[in-house]
């Protein structure tokens, strides 16, 4: 079914007002929280970005842009959703039920068909540069929306697969803190020895520091080595670390996300956002289905569907969705034509992404791909750089702002342009 | 009984003599003893003196006195890190300290430069310079083969102009002719990215960042977009075939209309057109015959192309000192009209050209300079305001952070009292390989190849303090140095001294000794106490920074 484009059923400004009022009501209905935490809900809360990264290149035809019954559609069927006239892949029933909170871009285009380069282009909005390391979108968000009073790292990456995000020229402090198996106690946070021994170890390292500083104190201080160790120790002792522990949630909540590493990752992402972390990335790998595409994608849907739906509804229920942008995408899509191995190959000429939350409009579908799979360019193409600009704008960040890189060359936070119909109030300036 | 004792008494000296002979043979055959070779050939002292004069001029201009000379062991550690990516083993330290001759540093460093492990380390560093840091295209790029080829070339001390000529112009399969990986690394989206290669050639071999000129005339650099395209066109005939990298004489380099990533004021040449190869300057240096790539190579390494030698010299300066003389390392000022004695990079460049493009000669000279032998302590380095001026004037040896790979190599070396090199047992080297991969991935490399400005981060600190790798490396058991030190040292003080020598290449200060002594005494076993000392040294700034 073709996209609805501009034809949203409900006037966007009225919808936003409804959500805002409902949100106030919900805030009062939640269990009593300490005053400071209660202030961190609703639309006035500083924003967070959750990136759900589908590593390998998810097929748009099996997920969010199916073309059932066509030569390119394969055996994939489509189902109706909460959005009138919009269908998605039949393996995503739970997501379909909450799709009215979500917007879909079906016409993403990129110039990169290689995994590493494509990942770079999507995560940063720029093509790889030999002279400069571009920061990922999450790093930009963390840089522009600093968090105060929070011990947790500003950028966190959960799960394994794909290529890592970087802080780039914004600094290595914005490299994400990586937890390959989310749900436990975080990573490298627990000293391997008892407190008494740990105390002796720290006293010993301080003695070495004093000796090293003799005759070069300022130079050693500039390395920040000892200062950062102090920060790391503060993190180890912080009660906020409980955010990493998925087991603290009731059984019903954990089951809703699914008993999978990715499901736990999405649950931890919600907890981290709730605790004030600016950027959380959760990776689900395995989408590079050059062979056996349909079975592969069906299996992954079993993991992705419940976790994604749970994340959206959970954030909404806790009044965090208005201040959290969720971006679901991969480095590119997959070919409309099916290869002899029942697989699909790389296709950056029209693939899909989901956007929800923050200043993102609800229920908007942008672009359409050719049901015959012949068109090289989709209708209403959206460059990947435009996607990053839109996400930044949805968090109230000035995407066109230029900052000076270490080389002296000025660089915009995003090189693209905003897709205005994806934003609730057009370009929303930050108060 | 009496007969047994008589036989025993006769056998004992024989056994002792045999044991002594065996030990002597082991020491002589040990791969880590550097040959006590000659200091260096002919006029190298002249080169070193010229370099010293250039740096001294900086001190005078800044009005800052240079630091005192560093202790020999400190210089040894720097040299090992710079030229082999590791630190001296206990074995090497003992032997070095027993070497009483006054030129022992020159001989030991010269010896290290001739060892295979130095060539392999320098090859890894240079492979990252020439072929970048990322994984590269699937199948057609083989970093391992490329690095091995570079290691052979460096070990054989092949002239760097030969090495560069091969990299730029070779033909063949990326497995059989590893030099072609320099070009095949630029394969992307089905074709060779000539613009990427042009940018890389300019940065690595000309010391100019001209990448901006790809899209528009750069406001600061004299290179225009047209000149950039002419340079890129030299790679226009190269293509990857079943036989490997070949040059197709029928192909013409074509520049497509580009959708600019950023809105640009009216940029020139936005339509598709054919571009012939042209060099941006020095037309007379282009050889008359050869493929486009061969002619480019000939132009690059022409004796009159001063930029080539300066680019190489600045890069080696960074490898030896941890920060380049000209910053950024791949964007140098234009060469002066005549050789400039006040610029050590220019001095090195002229010498490189006049001595057969000999890399080993340059590295040995750099390690012989006065600045390389200066301490990294200085009275002004205690003062926040003045510390920057000391660094700018090169009045003390600079601090620079270790690459995570070097960090873990150094740590692996400390777990073995013997030298880990090509002769070390396969198990040791395999374990080190996988440990290195994991740690490097988790630790992350400094961005932009600008290590001098990196600071450590919280995740790195957590990794060093609580990571599994650290636990494995400091653990005291029969296989690790910590275990053997704890078992064999005469007393706690001796144990502390050995740990300091193996990890920091120095002895502890009285204050440190007192605290470490307490730490060991308070631990439940001496082994655990030694572990705690090892942990502390591993987490200290002094271990993770070159000084």
What features would you describe in this structure?
The complex is a heterodimer of chains A (431) and B (547). Chain A has 431 residues and is α/β, with parallel strands linked by helices. Chain A folds into two domains: 12-19 and 46-180 and 245-422, 3-Layer(aba) Sandwich (Alkaline Phosphatase, subunit A); 187-241, no CATH class. Chain A has helices at 12-29, 35-39, 93-97, 115-124, 137-144, 195-213, 217-223, 225-236, 251-257, 261-275, 293-317, 384-394, and strands spanning 48-55, 78-80, 87-89, 102-109, 155-158, 177-179, 279-285, 324-329, 333-334, 346-347, 349-356, 365-366, 382-383, 402-404, 410-412. In chain A, the strands form four sheets. In chain A, strands 1, 4, 5, 6, 7, 8, 11, 12 and 13 form a nine-stranded mixed sheet that branches. Chain A has a two-stranded antiparallel sheet with strand order 2-3. In chain A, a hairpin with a 6-residue loop joins strand 2 and strand 3 (87-89). Chain A is globular and about 75 Å long. In chain A, helix 4 runs parallel beside helix 12 and helix 10 (261-275) packs parallel to helix 11. Chain A is built from twelve helices and 15 strands. Chain B is 54% helix and 4% strand. In chain B, a hairpin with a 2-residue loop joins strand 1 and strand 2 (191-192). In chain B, the strands form four sheets. A two-stranded antiparallel sheet of chain B has the order 1-2. In chain B, strands 3-4 form a two-stranded antiparallel ribbon. A two-stranded antiparallel sheet of chain B has the order 5-6. Chain B has 25 helices and eight strands. Mean pLDDT of chain B is 85; it is low at 26-40, 259-269 and 447-452. Among the domains of chain B are: 71-96 and 399-546, no CATH class; 117-258 and 269-300, no CATH class. Chains A and B meet through helix 6, helix 7 and helix 8 of A and helix 10, helix 16, helix 19, helix 23 and helix 24 of B.
């Amino acid at each position: 079914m073709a996209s609805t484009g501009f034809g949203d059923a409900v006037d966007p400004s009225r919808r936003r007002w409804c959500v805002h009022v409902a949100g106030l009501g919900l805030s009062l209905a939640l269990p009593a929280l300490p005053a400071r935490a209660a202030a961190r809900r609703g639309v006035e809360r500083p924003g967070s970005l959750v990136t759900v990264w589908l590593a390998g290149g998810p097929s748009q035809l099996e997920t969010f842009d199916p073309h059932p019954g066509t030569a390119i559609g394969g055996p994939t069927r489509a189902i109706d959703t909460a959005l009138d006239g919009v269908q998605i892949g039949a393996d995503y029933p739970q997501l379909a039920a909450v799709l009215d909170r979500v917007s879909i871009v079906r016409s993403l285009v990129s110039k990169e068909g290689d995994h590493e380069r494509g990942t770079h282009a999507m995560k940063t909005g720029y093509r790889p540069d030999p002279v400069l390391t571009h920061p990922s979108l999450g790093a930009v968000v963390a840089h522009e929306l600093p968090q105060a009073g929070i011990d947790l790292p500003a950028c966190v990456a959960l799960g394994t697969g794909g290529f890592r995000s970087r802080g780039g020229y914004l600094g290595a402090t914005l490299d994400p803190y990586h937890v390959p198996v989310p749900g436990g106690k975080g990573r490298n946070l627990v000293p391997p020895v008892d407190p008494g021994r740990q105390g002796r170890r720290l006293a010993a390292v301080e003695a070495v520091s004093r000796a090293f500083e003799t005759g070069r104190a300022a130079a050693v201080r500039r390395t920040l080595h000892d200062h950062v160790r102090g920060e790391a120790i503060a993190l180890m002792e912080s009660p906020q670390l409980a955010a990493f522990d998925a087991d603290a949630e009731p059984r019903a909540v954990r089951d809703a996300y699914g008993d999978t590493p990715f499901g736990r990752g999405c649950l931890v992402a919600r907890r981290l956002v709730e605790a004030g972390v600016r950027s959380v990335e959760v990776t689900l790998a395995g989408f590079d289905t050059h062979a056996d595409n349909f079975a592969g994608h069906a299996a992954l849907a079993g993991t992705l569907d419940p976790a994604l739906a749970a994340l959206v509804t959970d954030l909404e229920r806790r009044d965090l969705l208005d201040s959290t942008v969720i971006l679901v995408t991969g480095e590119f899509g997959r070919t409309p034509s099916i290869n002899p191995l029942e697989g699909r190959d790389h296709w950056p000429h029209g693939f899909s992404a989901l956007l929800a939350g923050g200043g993102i409009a609800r229920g908007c579908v942008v672009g359409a791909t050719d049901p015959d799979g012949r068109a090289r360019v989709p209708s209403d193409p959206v460059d990947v750089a435009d996607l990053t600009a839109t996400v930044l704008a949805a968090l109230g960040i000035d995407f066109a702002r230029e900052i000076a890189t270490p080389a002296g060359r000025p660089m915009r936070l995003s090189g693209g342009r905003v897709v205005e119909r994806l934003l609730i109030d057009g370009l929303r300036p930050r108060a | 009984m009496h007969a047994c004792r008589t036989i025993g008494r006769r056998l004992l000296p024989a056994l002792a003599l045999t044991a002594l002979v065996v030990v002597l043979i082991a020491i002589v055959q040990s791969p880590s003893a550097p040959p006590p070779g000659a200091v260096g050939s002919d006029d190298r002292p002249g080169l070193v003196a010229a370099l010293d004069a250039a740096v001294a001029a900086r001190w005078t201009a800044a009005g800052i006195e240079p630091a005192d000379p560093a202790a020999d062991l400190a210089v040894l550690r720097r040299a090992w890190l710079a030229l082999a990516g590791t630190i001296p083993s206990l074995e090497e330290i003992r032997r070095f300290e027993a070497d009483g001759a006054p030129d022992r540093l020159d001989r030991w460093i010269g010896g290290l430069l001739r060892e295979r492990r130095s060539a392999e380390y320098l090859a890894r560093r240079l492979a990252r310079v020439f072929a970048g840091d990322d994984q590269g295209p699937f199948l057609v790029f083989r970093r391992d083969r490329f690095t091995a080829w570079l290691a052979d070339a460096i070990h054989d001390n092949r002239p760097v102009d030969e090495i560069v000529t091969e990299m730029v112009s070779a033909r063949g399969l990326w497995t059989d002719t590893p030099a072609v990986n320099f070009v095949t690394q630029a394969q992307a989206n089905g074709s060779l990215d000539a613009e990427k290669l042009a940018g890389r050639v300019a940065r690595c071999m000309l010391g100019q960042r001209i990448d901006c000129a790809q899209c528009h005339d750069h406001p600061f650099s004299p290179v225009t977009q047209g000149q950039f395209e002419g340079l890129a066109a030299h790679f226009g005939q190269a293509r990857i075939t079943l036989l490997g990298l070949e040059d197709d004489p029928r192909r013409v380099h074509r520049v497509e209309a580009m959708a600019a990533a950023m809105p640009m004021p009216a940029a020139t040449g936005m339509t598709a057109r054919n571009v012939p190869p042209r060099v941006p300057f020095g037309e007379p240096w282009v050889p008359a015959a050869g493929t486009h790539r061969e002619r480019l190579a000939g132009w690059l390494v022409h004796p009159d192309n001063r930029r080539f030698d300066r680019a190489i010299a600045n890069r080696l300066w960074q490898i030896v000192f941890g920060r380049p003389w000209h910053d950024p390392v791949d964007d140098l000022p234009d060469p002066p009209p005549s050789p400039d004695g006040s610029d050590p990079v220019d001095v090195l460049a002229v010498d490189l050209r006049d001595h057969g493009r000999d890399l080993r000669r340059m590295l040995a000279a750099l390690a012989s300079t006065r600045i390389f032998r200066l301490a990294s302590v200085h009275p002004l380095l205690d003062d926040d305001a003045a510390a920057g001026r000391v660094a700018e004037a090169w009045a003390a040896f600079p601090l620079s952070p270790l690459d995570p790979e070097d960090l873990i190599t150094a740590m692996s070396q400390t777990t073995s009292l013997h030298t880990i090199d090509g002769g070390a047992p396969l198990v040791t080297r395999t374990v080190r390989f996988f440990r290195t991969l994991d740690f490097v991935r988790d630790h992350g490399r400094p961005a932009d190849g600008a290590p001098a400005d990196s600071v450590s981060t919280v995740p790195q600190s957590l990794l060093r303090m609580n990571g599994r790798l650290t636990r494995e490396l400091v653990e005291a058991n029969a296989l690790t140095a910590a275990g053997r030190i704890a078992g064999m040292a005469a007393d706690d003080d001796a144990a502390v001294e050995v740990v300091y020598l193996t990890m920091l290449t120095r002895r502890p200060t009285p204050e440190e000794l007192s605290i470490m002594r307490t730490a060991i005494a308070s631990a439940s076993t001496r082994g655990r106490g030694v572990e705690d000392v090892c942990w502390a040294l591993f987490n200290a700034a002094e271990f993770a920074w070159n000084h």
